Amino acid sequence: MDNFYATDSSVTLAKSGSSSVCRLCAANLNTTVVDLGVSPLANAFISIKNKNKMEPFYPLHAMICDHCWLVQLEQFETPQQIFEDYLYYSSYSTSWLRHAESYIEDMVRCFNLNSSSLIVEIASNDGYLLQYAQKKCIKVLGIEPASTVAEVAISKGINTEVAFFDKETAMRLRNNGVKADLMVANNVLAHVPDLHNFLEGFRILLKDDGVITFEFPHLMKLLTEAQFDTIYHEHFSYFSLKTVIEALRIHNLRVFDVDQLSTHGGSLRVYVTHEKNKNHQQTGAIQNILNQEYSAGLYNIETYKSFSERVIKIKEDFVEFLINERRLNKKIIAYGAPAKGNTLLNFCGIGPEFISFTTDINPHKQGMLLPGSRIPVMSPEVIRHEKPDVVIILPWNLKDEIMSQLSYIRSWGGRFALSIPDLLII
Questions:
Q1: Where does the record place the C-methyltransferase domain (predicted)?
Q2: CA distances, 55 to each of 23, 209, 240, 372, 388 (Å)
Q3: Which single residue of 49, 208, 248, 353 has CA 20 to 30 Å from 259?
Q4: Residue 92 above 50 pLDDT?
């Protein structure tokens, strides 16, 4: 594999917050992937009492490093600011809970985990995953920066530390006798502006024969299926397998296997260990996915330059559909209040004049307003009363689960609509 990274000494120049320098390899950033204008923080919901107050908007401009192929955003807010009042609770998705339970079953079987083992999850949220390990009498430790969701995990009896994970946190834990047999990092890699500080923490805290699994949305899927709405300020970086392999290599960590997952519109789960650990041999799955990435044009800069044209077409089709439905006096609502939905709505300039309200099963979001669009969030129970003609599914990755839950809208002729990767009316 090509060694396209800068030397270790120059990597330290890739400081988070730089608009002109890659946060991974310190090369200059010159190529736009997509410019989505300006947008508020995607999870900065507005309370009713603050509805007349201003909210900050920031450029949402994804660029790619021509040297290491990391797609990234400029950093405008610190993680501390973004996660201070976080309203994403993993346990509200039944499909995600099934995914977590299945993961624990697989890891226990594959790596012979038992009551003497320790699983450490980074960004453990509300204990959605570690609860299944704890049921098997396996020792667990969650590390979660958002105190609001961490408190839920603690209330479940799950050992959780409220902290951002980095090499300093890892060293403190190791000095207190913590060494992990398995480290779990689901959908957190994209949330980290200082990748080197973060990845070094895994090297420090992992046992010599331990294993790490990272799950992250696959850049290949973002590009091939035009999943531009997964771009928001909370996601600082967007990864291919090749980029992840090389980033980990810098920290003497080795990817030995990879799974393709359907979660979040198409994700990868990479299996990682210390470079010096020879217990796990590299599988052929790695080269297979690298070949897929090459075939999809991930290492051809023209692929990224043409991506924005597809994004504009999605916007045109979606806005045209909403305009036509409103002219027919159709009642339009949405389901879900995910971060990706807020990217879509703000980029398309959609507000309550088109979508009367959205609904979400998460009670912490109900009674709030979506950032930017100011569309109110209500309980899904109101759908039966309002009888909308169209329900826009904003978390399209959960469309099957949502359409099953809301199948009753068919009784009055209701339809579902999705905008990504293409406009679909069901």
A1: 263-421
A2: 27, 48, 33, 8, 30
A3: 208
A4: yes
Task: Give dist(CA 106, CA 119) in Å, integer.
Answer: 13
What is the average per-residue pLDDT within 386-395? Answer: 98
Mean per-residue pLDDT over the chain, rounded: 92
394: number of CA atoms within 13 Å, CB side?
A: 25
Per the DSSP assignment, residues forming a β-bridge with 417 are 392, 425
The 10s digit of each residue's pLDDT in 241-262 is 999 999 999 999 999 999 999 9
Query: Domain containing 41: what range?
Result: 8-73
Structure tokens at 12: 């330290």
> What is the number of structural domains in the chain?
3
* 84: in domain: no
Q: Which two tokens stand for residue 122?
A: 């980074």
One domain, residues 96 and 244: yes
List the beta strands (DSSP E) in 41-125. 46-47, 58-64, 71-73, 118-122
pLDDT band at 3 (very low <50, low <70, confident <90, very high): very low
pLDDT for residue 84: 60
Strand 267-274 to 206-217 pairing: antiparallel
Residue 35 counted as domain residue = yes
Of 204, 189, 264, 163, nearest in space to 24 by CA: 189
User: pTM for this structure?
Assistant: 0.90
pLDDT at residue 17 in the model = 39
> Are 96 and 58 within one domain?
no
Beta-carbon contacts of residue 47 (< 8 Å; ≥ 6 apart)? 367, 368, 369
Q: What is the pLDDT of residue 391?
A: 98
